[in-house]
Amino acid sequence: MVTITNIINANNVLSKIVKKTPTERIERLSNDNTNIWFKREDLQIVRSYKLRGAYNKIYHLSDEEKERGVVCASAGNHAQGVAYSCYKNKIKATIFMPQTTPNQKIQRVKFFGKEFVEIVLEGNTYDEASKAAKEYTKKHNKIYVHPFDDEYVIAGQGTVGLEIINQLDVMPDYVFMPIGGGGLISGVSIALKSMNPNIKVIGVEPRGCPSMHESIKSQKIVELDQIDTFADGVAVKRVGENTFEIVKKYVDEIILVDEGHICKVMVDLYQNEGIVAEPAGAVSVAGFETMQDKLDGKDVVCVISGGNNDLLRYQEIMERKLVWEGRKRYFVVQFSQKPGQLRKFIDNVLGPNDDIVLFEYIKKNNKEKGPVLIGIEFDTKESAQMLDEKMLQAGFNFQEIKNTDLIYNLLI
Question: Which of 186, 239, 250, 365 is the most exposed place for a label (fewest CB within 10 A)?
Fold first, then answer.
């Protein structure tokens, strides 16, 4: 198992390669007796902590292994770390990425790896890309650089923990981190607990991808059948063997957060602190917010793990945020096929500042009533909560489309 000595050695290897990213006190979330700090790994050279583990692993390869070349699988951030490390060490790399990987991350991998990297898009999830990468590694006698279940990688990620302790004048009471495969939280928890076993280490996973949560709950590694890949940086069906054992020993609690809550945090970070976080990078802050009432008087660190977000995703991010907040809802409503029905709906159902954002209606001449697909953005949550009663009082028959319904995916 990885030790604090391994992490200190990794820190020496990485001292001239990675940025010592700042740990910043966040005024918006702090008060006179409570300090909330963000460890800004989104400001790393490759905009995530992944460079630390990738470089430490590649540095320790033998000359013969470097000559053979490396292979990795990644949803984006580990790929950038491997690409940068291979460029610096002049090593050839083949990088497998899911076909669902945002284009921004693919372009960044090409930028960092330059002529030393070949990209292969395979599968719809990290796990499918990983399977293809391992088969390719075996067939072509390459070296596989695992994104999380490797002792050198875990030790490299653990250097984030060393920096947190060295940068703060106080010892943190709580540290929140995202969990995907478990490499970051494994390394950092070892570093933190080695220096102060009283630090509470809290892991945070999206509700749509609770692979470590379910594994710890079952006391064995559980492979999920399906996952929500929205937070692609932590979208892993199966956690690592090594990371599972470390998390079981060192992590105090794992909490789940809704994807909509993650989106709300992403918007808050951008609008208030000017931080462009990717979904996985905002997970820790969403976890903190679920426990915020219990943390008065504490020193708390949230690791902003990455900032590789594609701006083209912001429409979906805003959509998920509003739905999670209860400020946007979709319905199929039966309208009588006679003039004035839309006016009746607006006058008797909607609040003065509510907005119709989607309206689809095809008149059917041989029927008394016809269905209308309608989306409404509400001025307040209270207005949204009153809508059902108002529609019933106005005589409208309706059915709400939930974000768990298959047809919902056609709306965003």
Answer: 365
